[in-house]
Amino acid sequence: MDLKLLNSEIQEFINSSIDKTITKLALQKNPFPVMEWVSILNQIEAKTKSKEKLPHWFATKNIIYPSKISVEQTSSEKTASYKSEIVSGESLIDLTGGFGVDDFYFAKKINKVTHCEINPELSNIVKHNFEQLNVKNIRCLSGDSLEILSQLKAEYDWIYIDPSRRSDAKGKVFMLKDCLPNVPEHLDFLFNSSDRILIKTAPLLDISAGLSELKNVKSIHIIALENEVKELLWELHKNYFGKTILKTINIVKEKRDTFEFVFNENSENPEYGLPANYLYEPNSAIMKSGGFDEIGIFYKLKKLHKHSHLYTNSEIIAFPGRIFEIDNTIEYHKKEMKIFLEGKQFNITTRNFPETVDSIRKKWKIKEGGKQYCFFTTDENDNKIVLICKKIK
């Protein structure tokens, strides 16, 4: 960590360069010979990326940023805030501390937080930033976190861990055993230090695969921001042997759409039906959960097809996803396409349909955008249909 970055003139230059094109700035002569130009450029780029994602860091003076990749990979403040609502108690140890965003929010709920980071440079940066952020209940330790945990010989109310995928695992199916630390291998060791473990994984991890590797999983939280799944949170309790609850959360601005159900315990069959007045499309967190039947049954909606994951009924109801009013339903035939869609402008979505959005646009010369939406899908009778809609929510 180079404290010369905190020079008032350098900080002023960084702040005045937010949102500027880095490639253009890189061609300029370094106005601060005491500091490497590439380090200053990295601060500009990383801080720019933190503007929306990490508003507390962005607004605080004398924050030092690691590489832009570290900022890209860190939790956003919104997802970190959600995580803090899961934990409670006196103490928590984070075995993969990173940039410390999650710990900043854990420290609002937990009296003593320990931040472990194997990279000493990053550990020092985080310690410095916590001082600027006026956080006094987080201890920063650098080194192998499993060794630290073993040496401390302490018990914690929670262990938090965000394992990173090993670089030599590229191209393979994403499994927790392919990550560092290897959580499945060390699970019994971790339970010696805490009865509760919270694991963050990337959305790429298959839920069934994760459950096959782990044990004592009480719940899985699927977190989406603005309808894009960002992370999975696996809540493990040492002596829990019951059913796993899947909780889906889509955070849109300051609002949350939530839905939860018991994993693999749907005793009812969904009802199927042809398109009615309104179309319902679940948000991405629900789509990731695989609760395709559960969502339709809970909201008393009819499903268009077993594999379409679109729902319909004759009334508008509150729903965790997008809602459309169906203006017209046409069969996917040349005649109908020429009359209703060819050469016009629509937003296109495909669900359980044999052609891609790009091929449909090219084939029928459909322009992108506009206020109308088209869903190319399959109905309960296996007919290829197009739903022409306008968005309500």
UniProtKB/TrEMBL annotation:
BP-aspect Gene Ontology terms: methylation
Pfam families: PG_1098_Fer, Thump_like
Keywords for the protein's UniProt record, in alphabetical order: Methyltransferase, Transferase
Keyword Transferase applies: yes
THUMP-like domain span: 321-391
Chain ranges of the PG-1098 ferredoxin-like domain: 278-320
One MF annotation (Gene Ontology) recorded for this entry: methyltransferase activity
InterPro entries documented for this protein: PG_1098_Fer, SAM-dependent_MTases_sf, Thump-like
Annotated PANTHER family: S-ADENOSYLMETHIONINE-DEPENDENT METHYLTRANSFERASE RELATED, TRIMETHYLGUANOSINE SYNTHASE
Protein name: Class I SAM-dependent methyltransferase
